[in-house]
Write a structure and sequence with these properties.
The complex is a heterodimer. By secondary structure, chain A is α/β, with parallel strands linked by helices. Chain A is built from 18 helices and 9 strands. In chain A, strand 1, helix 2 and strand 2 form a beta-alpha-beta unit. Chain B has a two-stranded antiparallel sheet with strand order 1-2. Classes of the chains: A alpha/beta, B mainly alpha. At the A-B interface, helix 1, helix 3, helix 4 and helix 17 of A face helix 1 of B.
Amino acid sequence: MRNHRRRGFTALATIASLATVSALAAACGSDDADQEGDGKVHITVEGWRPGDEQGTIDAVEKQAGAFMKENPDIVVEPVEWEWNAETFATQLAGGQLPTSFRVPFTDTLGLAERQQIADVTDYVDDLPYAEDFNPSVLAAAQGTDGRTYGLPTDVYGVGLHYNRDLFEQAGLDPDDPPTTWDEVREDAEAIAEATGKAGYVQMSTNNTGGWMLTTLTYALGGRIESEDGTQASVDNDATREGLQLLHDMRWEDDSMGKNTNFEWGTINEAFAAGKVGMYMSGSDVYNALVTTNQIDPASYGLAALPLGDGADVGILGGGSVAAVSAKASPEEQEAAVKWNDFYRERKNYDPDAAVADALVLAESDQPIGTPTLPIFDQETWQTVEDAKAEYVNVPREQMTSFTEGVFDQALVPEPAAHTQEVYAILDSVVQKVLTDEGADIDALLAEADDKAQALLG
Amino acid sequence: MSTLLARARGSAATVVFLLPMLLVFGLFSWWPIVRSFVMSLQQTNLVTPAEFVGLDNFRAVLDDPLLTTAAQNTLWFALLALVFGYPVPLVLAVVMSDVRRARGLYSMLAYLPVVVPPAVAVLLWRFFYDAEPTGVFNTILGWFGLGPVPWLEDPSWAMPSLVLEATWAAAGGTVIIYLAALVSVPPELYDAAEVDGAGILAKVWHVTLPHLRGIMLITLILQIIGTSQVFLEPYLFTDGGPDNATLTILLLVYDYAFANTTGGDYGKATALSLMLAGALAVLSVVYFRLTRRWSE
């Protein structure tokens, strides 16, 4: 009897607590209020990356102050944030995302399709330069429904970043970086032999292996998917040639070092620490190398990516979309687009805004003049570049190979469909080639092609 | 009547004392479990309304070729951890219980790795595992004319390297459990064994181990459950690579849920989690059935 009664009480308490819990969980899911009682619209925005130096934070804070002066009915709060695919969806679901943030070109389409970022077409159309975007760049910020989901920014082309000090130590001319992949291989070997450091390193994990194998494929004239993203073409001669090159540098020349687990952040770290002779990454990575990795500017060099022969060779181009959280109210969405216009886009269009931006960056000793590519037409880009020329504080003379060569190179967008998933499949291929001397490249490509095709349907 | 009332009051007091625990467990353990059951039958990205898809998620998981790889890798990790990781704490505990001086110091040294935050420990070990000849471990091996070893850079080396770190990180906790159990062995038994002419090994075999049997059976199943859920090491060291050589079931769950940049497949992730939980539950029941006779 006593046991029964006790069990009854415990069961009751369990039910009561579960009911409370579900009520609490439901309450947690409700949205925060848009307004904080002062009649202003409050938004949080992506400000700086974790680990960025104080100067970067100061510069953003200053810009936020200037923005609020221009828009007295908006309160903007920059916060520490970095795009991370792994936490994005849960941050969104948990209401922890800033109102505005940047996502890579490759992810915009999927996020838009899943309604995880807001449709901001109406606000973007109100901007004075809405009609002037380079259509292929604007496409990266649009969904399959033709609506616009943000402002395209930070357009880059992949370049070859190299360490001038290691070039010198290996008896190479740092002002004459390699222009063919054969030269990359020779120089990498020379660096490895003379310095014991890795002559050339390639990213391999967290989907960056696929990203860079795609880059190498483009450079050698191949494609990973058909233009419309319905057919996989992973098993192609250019990718095979690229993998063979990596294989030979790793195993025959031993010029890639022994560590092969690299992604965007860790390869930057290793490069800034002087452990890497050359690597491929976006042309704008110098900013992160300065603000996050404190690279010695004198050691940095940027070359145009060597291209193979053939009509289809090109460099992989990408960028970010300044997007807005799907959970933001219409007022917040409008405010976020205004901020993105003010902070990220206007400076690419309006020479006065470019100068104002450069002045703030200069005050906080932030890099100005890192190479990017046009978001509008090339003429607009040139006007803006000329306007801020006197404020440039990055070693542009060490980047001339890139800045002079890039406009002669075809810019090829990233694969159209299931981009990151295809990159994940290619990660394995790159890892296999870099960790297994006997890797069967033909078999790897055939298998990867099947997997990619299964995704594309 | 009054005794009944008193009893009821006593039960009410029990419930009041239980309530905070029930609430905390409810909110942070049971509610998520209930939610994951529901989610495994849904397709959801946590933003748009969830769609009921029946057992599709389970089918999709079973059709995934990576599941076999992940299951094999997890078993490989569990086996390596069993062969190398399971005896280490036992040997350490038996040796330490025999030490007369500075036992506290040894306990502290054994337990220290457990106190180090796991992510920090992994960062530290990444330095040790640097594949260049200048890496910490490779430098040490170099003194003996060995290596360099591609610790995390080679599919066949990667998993044993993870087990080595995991054993280092976890052994301390188990050592403490064994040490506590060893205190309960009556010293007279050792004396009697000595009189019978038993050496150190014979004493350990005939006195110590039989006394630890119950604890050892528990730590064994705890270890099997723990290693089947290994996540931290493969995630932080290798992210499942190279070429999926360290992709474990839990990492696959994580990849389903979070690695897909365009939304995450929480349905598949929870389906695989539930399948793993079910498998471990069955394993535990079978294990306790089989070992009931020995542990009595």
